[in-house]
Amino acid sequence: MKKILVTGGTGFIGSHTVVELLNAGYDVDIIDNLCNSKASVIDKISEITGKKPTFYQQDLLNQPALDQLFQTNKYYAVMHFAGLKSVSESQVKPYEYHHNNIVSTLNIIKCMLEHKVNRLIFSSSATVYGTQDSPECFESMVTGQGITNPYGRTKYFIEEILKDVSAGHPELSITLLRYFNPIGNHPSGLIGEDPNGIPNNIMPVIIRVAQGKIAKLKVFGNDYDTPDGTGQRDFIHVVDLAKGHIAALKHMQKGVNIYNLGTGTANSVLELIYSFERISGQKIPYEIVDRRPGDLGAVWANSAKANAELGWRTQLTIEDAITDTLQYLKLHQ
Ligand code: UD1
């Protein structure tokens, strides 16, 4: 059985991908330091799949411990999700973000080269597109211009490091997956997004308003050049996103290959709020406030490359994501 090392496998996107890997018949080792997730996720993954991944509570900055894992296991591929991911936190802790995200990745590369593990899938982000003239993002666009925060730059720098590593090591197959805006959770409601502290992203904020933990949602600006003036994003159901990783794993090729994982469409912040209200039957109080510095008006994926080359496309809607979120909330009040 092919064994995959999943870093950050107890986190939001990592845990959903582990479910899809186990369902597809792969063997999974998870390494996670639990800095923004819980060990109980492992039991939930087992409950969903009937299979148990092996869990190592380790920090990727601990190179000798990581090396030990590579010495005792023969990995078919590494999926690298682990990383610090809060935009606002990255602005007050830039050193921690660059050190953690970049050194972790370098440690993984070192182990892969030394132990001849040749396949890597990296969790990148639409944030690498920075500021563009067009809201639709294509993989061929120049990246790195106008990224507004250290978190986003760590994603961009890691992409560039991986391109250099690939040029010097042509035996490697590296896939960069650029995620758009993941929402929702597994339909069982057993696993989902549970960020520590104050969330930045829209769906975790809506959830906290629905739970009465935050009184009002702040809508950051209604004067963008979009149909209703609020920001438009490509919201992708996390289960579709997770399945994109399995498709990518099955189509790995030498060199660096880059794919957008998005739906190819966009919904506005108000549309997301109204859909949540309609499906939940619950009012989400909101107020329009100033634009959030660094935000863009509209951003969505051109997903033609992933559709054509990976044979993958999204199947779920934002309504599905909201229904699944409500199931998660029912189990996690
Ligand atoms: C953000 C990050 C991006 C990161 C991604 C992870 C920025 C500029 N970009 O993307 O680097 O990869 O999260 O998922 O921060 N909104 C509100 N009220 C809120 C929260 C958000 O109106 O309380 C709006 C935003 O203005 C935006 C939309 O909702 O129009 C989506 O915001 P968010 O979920 O934070 O994602 P992005 O900004 O797209």
What does the model show?
- α5 (94-114) runs parallel beside α6.
- The chain is an alpha/beta fold.
- The protein has helices at residues 12-23, 40-49, 63-72, 87-92, 94-114, 150-168, 202-210, 238-250, 269-280, 304-310, 318-331, and strands spanning 3-7, 27-32, 54-57, 77-80, 119-125, 136-137, 173-179, 181-183, 217-220, 232-233, 235-237, 255-261, 267-268, 286-289, 298-301.
- β2 (27-32), α2 (40-49) and β3 form a beta-alpha-beta unit.
- It has eleven helices and 15 strands.
- Strands 3-2-1-4-5-7-12 form a seven-stranded parallel beta sheet, sandwiched between helices.
- It is globular and about 55 Å long.
- Helices cover 40% and strands 19% of the residues.
- It binds uridine-diphosphate-N-acetylglucosamine (UD1).
- Uridine-diphosphate-N-acetylglucosamine is lined by residues 87, 125, 127, 148, 152, 181, 200-202, 205, 217-220, 231, 233, 269, 292, 294-295.
Terminal Cα span = 38 Å
Uncertain residue ranges? none
Could you spell the SSE succession in H and E letters? EHEHEHEHHEEHEEHEEEHEEHEEHH
Helix amount? 25-40%
User: Tell me about the biggest sheet?
Assistant: 7 strands, parallel
Number of helices, where a helix is a run of at least 4 consecutive DSSP H or I residues: 11
Tell me the number of strands.
15
Q: What is the mean pLDDT?
A: 97
- Shape summary: globular
Radius of gyration: 19 Å
- Ligand identities: uridine-diphosphate-N-acetylglucosamine
Beta content: 15-25%
Give me the secondary-structure category. alpha/beta
Strand order of the largest sheet: 3-2-1-4-5-7-12
